[in-house]
Amino acid sequence: MREKFFFCKMAGVLAVILTLFVVPGIAEEERTDASGQWKYRLEDGGATITGYVEEPEGDLAIPSELDGHPVTRIGADTFADCMDLTDVIIPESVVSIGDFAFTRCYGLTSIAIPESVTSIGEWVFWECGSLTKVTIPDNVTNISNGLFGGCDTLTSVVIPNSVTGIGMEAFSGCESLTSVDIPGSVTSIGEGAFHRCESLTSVIIPDSVTIIGDEAFLACSGLESVIIPDSVTSIGNSMFRACEGLTRVTIPVSVTRIGDEAFGWCESLTSLVIPPTVTVIGEDAFAECKKLTLTVTEGSVAEYYAEQNGIPCVFATE
């Protein structure tokens, strides 16, 4: 009898522990608001829009509250594939936008993101092919992976000084993007971040940047000039591959490595100074650069590389 009582008591204690630590983590069930249009769930006292009953079309003003609850989040995939959406206004109650929230909204031409938003998920505007201009709120700290990838009509983006990182493929395939002002707050540029931004003509990378991912400017065929700051130590694989219009590049003495195919197929590149600090040059780093003459330091890795690969070179003067 004593053992049975002890077992029951311990079971009760365990139940209380599970209630304290498990129940708060259980997701709120999805609801439909009183209007019968919006699906949502409650999180931290606010409503997260998760879907809709009838697919929205044309201009859309997302409600600021549902059934008396402030709308604080737009959930993942909420408006994905709403191809007939044209203009979206997000209320100032919203603080975050989930992954893929507006992906493949092909008809979306403009979206107003309020200053209240501090987090924008990954691939949110992926392949929004009609989007032309976006202003990122001042409180956002990261341009996430694939955020504007495939937005081929996007011509301008304002990146605030609060942003510290530009994610993988963030602007990949933005064929109409002509210029981008990377603020001095940015420390990293992700892999393929500006891949195939064919209308981009020049890029100034600020001194704050220490990491630039592989293929960051791959196939930016209109890119003519690039200034790489002293803070960068490596030029990654295929970073400027197939930048057919590239004529001017400055490689600082901080760089120690030039990756595979880094400048391969840069057909307009005629001259490039490689500092003696570069100790590694990858395979096909200058493949098919038929007009190129390298300026190297006598006895350097760059001189040896040029000789081994049949690339014309001249010695740097003091």
Describe, in plain words, how this protein is organized in 3D.
With 318 residues, the protein is mainly β. It has 2 helices and 25 strands. The protein has helices at residues 2-21, 301-309; strands spanning 31-32, 38-43, 46-52, 58-61, 65-66, 69-74, 85-89, 96-97, 110-112, 119-120, 133-135, 142-143, 156-158, 165-166, 188-189, 202-204, 211-212, 225-227, 234-235, 248-250, 257-258, 271-273, 280-281, 293-296, 313-315. Strands 1, 2, 3, 5, 6, 8 and 10 form a 7-stranded mixed β-sheet that branches. The longest helix has 20 residues, at 2-21. The radius of gyration is 26 Å and the shape is elongated. Residues 1-26 have low confidence and may be disordered.
Summarize the structure.
The protein is mainly beta and 318 residues long. The chain is built from 2 helices and 25 strands.
Q: What would you call the structural class?
A: mainly beta
Work out the helicity level. under 10%
Q: Give the low-confidence spans.
A: 1-26
Sheet of most strands:
7 strands, mixed
Tally of separate helices:
2
End-to-end separation in angstroms reads: 96 Å
Average pLDDT confidence is 92
What gyration radius follows from the Cα positions, in whole Å? 26 Å
The ordered string of helix (H) and strand (E) elements is HEEEEEEEEEEEEEEEEEEEEEEEEHE
How would you sum up the global shape?
elongated
Beta percentage is 15-25%
- Count of DSSP strands: 25
